[in-house]
Design goal:
The structure holds 2 protein chains of 2 kinds. Chain A is an all-alpha fold. Helices cover 66% and strands 1% of the residues of chain A. Chain A is built from 13 helices and 1 strand; from the N terminus they run H-H-H-H-H-E-H-H-H-H-H-H-H-H. The longest helix of chain A has 24 residues. The radius of gyration of chain A is 18 Å and the shape is globular. Chain B is of the alpha+beta class. Chain B starts with a helix and ends with a strand. The model of chain B has no long low-confidence stretch (mean pLDDT 91). Classes of the chains: A mainly alpha, B alpha+beta. Chains A and B meet through helix 2, helix 3, helix 5, strand 1 and helix 7 of A and helix 1, strand 1, helix 2 and helix 3 of B.
Chain lengths: 293, 219
């Protein structure tokens, strides 16, 4: 059984199967569930992800302080008007990621992936790539399993908590998971999927967790959008053949150690970064009627 | 430690934070299974729970949890009014616990002013939790598997009685941790198992002169 990316890759290559097959095998052994049970449970989770990625696209949702209310519908309108820099595909991906964040901030129902603060990245990327490539639901669910299997390796060996590792541990890991899933949807090799995984984490190494007013709204929602794009560009770099010399397990370890080096002010305590700006303090006063400190 | 893919793709929960909302609700729910008929709950918030808990609804989530409301139930947002309807009093305060995760809470359950049970727990991220202390005894309880919490006198034969009863009911032990403050005094045991347990098993397990109490914590 594998506990690292290296072992997972060796098993996938030796058996000549996609990563999700190895992940399903481990899940079956550990939980006693059948392959059909695992697929069914993931199908249920995917349904919740889809609903949250769509819910705020047309309708702004109320959130405490209203800091992210309406951002998904604004972006979606822009994505559809055709006149954008990154094209309607990337803009729709961002709108969907923002929708998940907006639902989360409004105390709606979401599926953490791997956390609630980063719940928009994997759904937005995989559903959009699936749609673009005209793939069936089962294929997308298998890519979700690949993404989740890699997230599990991070949880076993490092952390996905912003309070422990900063935003890199939440949105960074989500981007890495999504990148690996996207490579699989594009029929890249398991090695390419892990390459994309590493590149995403490298691109966000050291990012701090600095929620304004301590709320999971800004800059969390914006980072769901930007990290969805990070996942896609990392997937494209890997699919283009880029080989990053540092192996994924060492990148995970570096992310973990970097998180440990971050002072507590930059780990979800709302005492540093964007959260410590004058305007953020003013927003905090407006919402809670007190000082941020 | 092996992590299920559904601990990554999950939990399905009410926002906004898996550590500060869903994890808090789970902590409350697991902790409440160790106390009966409480009418007052005290929450000592440590670290990031104290600093950023309010904006994440950590208070609502903890309170909802001790009332048995699950982390994917939209009733979570109405925890304060539900507590009032159920005549459950509560208070929140800041505290400092030593050697514990940033997102931690000490929960005290009371009835008629008497402390029934005091539990330290942490939310580890992604909705994962760890109960690390019960009434001063060090434990390891994750809530991912069904578990027994046993209070006993530290004497020979207690554990063999417990494992015998489990074996006779064909229940496999996943993890087991015994904790005592000093030799021959009171001790506790946490056993995580692979399957659930029926009432008869609990009655049989309790039927030992050196076992004071057995509680079953389902998932």
């Amino acid at each position: 059984m594998y506990h690292s990316c290296k072992q997972l890759l060796q098993m996938a290559e030796a058996q000549k199967v996609p990563i999700h097959e190895i992940v399903i095998e481990k899940e079956r052994k550990n939980s006693g569930a059948s392959r059909a049970d695992i697929m069914e449970t993931m199908r249920g989770r995917y349904g919740i992800m889809l609903a949250s990625a769509e819910k705020a696209l047309e309708q702004p949702l109320p959130s405490e302080g209203g800091l992210v209310t309406g951002i998904a519908s604004d972006q979606y309108r822009y994505a559809r008007n055709g006149d954008t820099l990154c094209g309607s595909f990337l803009n729709t991906v961002m709108a969907r990621a923002l929708s998940c964040s907006e639902v989360n901030a409004s105390m709606g129902r979401i599926c953490a992936m791997p956390t609630a603060g980063s719940c928009g990245i994997v759904p937005a990327v995989l559903m959009s790539v699936g749609e673009k490539e005209m793939l069936d639901e089962e294929t997308i669910i298998l890519a979700l399993i690949t993404a989740s299997g890699l997230g599990a390796i991070v949880m076993e060996n490092a952390t996905v908590a912003g309070s422990e590792g900063g935003c890199q541990a939440e949105c960074g890991v989500a981007a890495a998971m999504a990148a690996a899933g996207a490579v699989e949807l594009k029929r890249g090799t398991p090695a390419m999927a892990l390459e994309a995984f590493s590149l995403s984490l490298v691109n966000i190494m050291g990012l701090v967790c600095d929620p304004v007013a301590g709320l999971v709204q800004i800059p969390c929602a914006q980072r769901n959008a930007s990290q969805a794009v990070n996942a896609l560009l990392s997937a494209d770099l890997a699919l283009g053949g880029m080989k990053f010399p540092i192996p994924p397990d060492e990148v995970i370890e570096a992310m973990y150690k970097t998180g440990k080096m971050l002072p507590v002010q930059l780990r979800e305590t709302a005492q540093g970064g964007i959260a410590a700006t004058e305007t953020a303090k003013e927003i905090t006063r407006q919402i809670f009627g007190r000082n941020s400190d | 430690m092996s992590i299920s893919i559904f601990q990554v793709a999950g939990p399905v929960m009410i926002g906004p934070s898996s550590s500060h909302t869903a994890g808090a609700a789970r902590l409350g729910r697991i902790a409440a299974k160790l106390a009966d008929r409480f009418d007052f709950v005290s929450f000592g918030l440590h670290g990031s729970f104290a600093d950023t808990g309010k904006g994440h609804g950590t208070d609502k989530a903890l309170l909802a949890g001790v009332m048995g409301i699950r982390e994917d139930d939209e009733a979570l947002g109405q925890a304060f009014s539900i507590a009032a309807e159920n005549h459950l009093d509560f208070e929140f305060h800041k505290t400092e616990l030593s050697g514990i995760h940033e997102n931690s809470v000490r929960i005290g359950f009371y009835r008629d002013g008497q402390l029934l049970c005091e539990i330290d727990g942490s939310s580890l991220g992604g909705g994962e939790v760890l109960i690390s202390r019960i009434d001063g005894y060090e434990v390891e309880l994750t809530g991912n598997l069904p578990a027994f919490f046993i209070r006993q006198q530290d004497k020979c034969g207690v554990l063999s009685h417990i494992t015998k009863v489990l074996a006779e009911h064909n229940i496999n032990i996943a993890t087991m941790k015994v904790s005592r403050k000093s030799r021959s005094e009171d001790a506790t045991c946490v056993i995580e198992v692979d399957e659930g347990a029926a009432g008869e098993l609990l009655t049989r397990m309790k039927d030992h002169p050196n076992i004071y109490d057995v509680r079953f914590i389902g998932v």
